[in-house]
Amino acid sequence: MAEEQPTNTSTPWASMPQRKPVPSAPTVTPDPDTEAAAETATVTETTPEHHNTTQDASLKEQKTPYKQSFLASIPSWWGTQKRPRKILIIGLIAGLFLIALIIGLAVGLTVGKKNSKSNLALPTSNGGPYSGDLTYYAPALGSCGYTNTESEHVLAVSHILFDAASTGSNPNDNPLCGLKIRIRRDGESVDAKVVDRCVGCAETDLDVTESVFEKLATLAQGRVTMEWAWLEKAPVNASSQRRDANTALVGNYVDLHV
C-alpha cells in the first residue's frame, strides 16, 4: 500500500512571518469648553444674516421725531376741519380784543389816577397857601408819638407853628398832629400828614419824607421852594401874650386859624 502523505491542516499563511503591531495613538480627552466654542464659531460663520424688514421699518419710524410727524399732520387735519377752524379763528379774535380792552382800561385808569392826585389846587378855606422851603428827612419816632418810615407820606412842620398850637406839656396832644397838608410845586401836588416838629425849619418851611419829596423834586436837589395849604382846619389856640411876642413869626397863623 502506498504510504499516505501527511496532510497539512494549518492555514497557508500560518507560516508567514507576522508584522509588529502598530502602536495605538494616545487617547485625548475632549475639552467641553473648547468644543462648544468651536461649534459656536462654526455656526456663526455658516449661519447667513437674516434682515427683518418689519423691525427695521419700526426702528426707522422711532427715529423720526414726534414733532415732525405731528406738524406734518396739521395741514391735512386743518383742511378737513371747517367748523372747528372757524370757531378757532373767532376765539383768537375775541381773545385779542379782550386783551387789548384790558390793557386800554388799565392804562386809562392809571393815567386818570395820576392826574387826579398830582395836580390838585391848594385850598384856601382852612389857611394858605403859604410859600416856603421844602426839605426831606428820615422819620422815626416823632413829636406826635407816631413811628413812621420813609415810604409814608408824612411831614414835620416848623417848631414855631407846632409850639404855637400846643395846648399842654405833652407834644403828643398837639392839635396839629394828624392834620393833613397839601404841597404843590411846578404843577405837581401831594398830600401828607403832620407827625413831627422841625427844629431847623423857618415858619413856613416843611420837612417831608423822601417819598413825598420825590413827588415834587429829585433827592439830589435837596432843598426847593414850594407852596402849601391846610386840608383841614387847624385848631391853633394861641394866647394874646404869645401872639404879641411872636407877631412876626406866627401872627399870620394865629389870625387865620383862631
What does this structure look like?
This protein is α/β, with parallel strands linked by helices. Among the domains are: 83-118; 130-257, RlpA-like domain (Barwin-like endoglucanases), CATH 2.40.40.10. It has eight helices and six strands. The protein has helices at residues 32-46, 53-63, 66-80, 82-118, 159-164, 210-216, 240-245, 247-257, and strands at 130-136, 154-158, 180-185, 188-198, 206-208, 224-230. It has a six-stranded mixed barrel with strand order 1-5-2-4-3-6. The longest helix is centred in the middle third of the chain and has 37 residues, at 82-118. The protein is elongated, with a radius of gyration of 57 Å. The protein starts with 31 loop residues before the first helix and ends with a helix. The model is unreliable at 237-258 (pLDDT under 50).
The gyration radius over C-alpha positions equals: 57 Å
Percent helix: 40-55%
**Mind telling me the CATH class of the domain at 130-257?**
Mainly Beta
Tell the overall outline. Answer: elongated
Given helix and strand content, the structural type is alpha/beta
> Which blocks of ≥5 consecutive residues have pLDDT under 50?
237-258
Please provide the ordered H/E string of secondary-structure elements.
HHHHEEHEEEHEHH
Mean pLDDT: 71
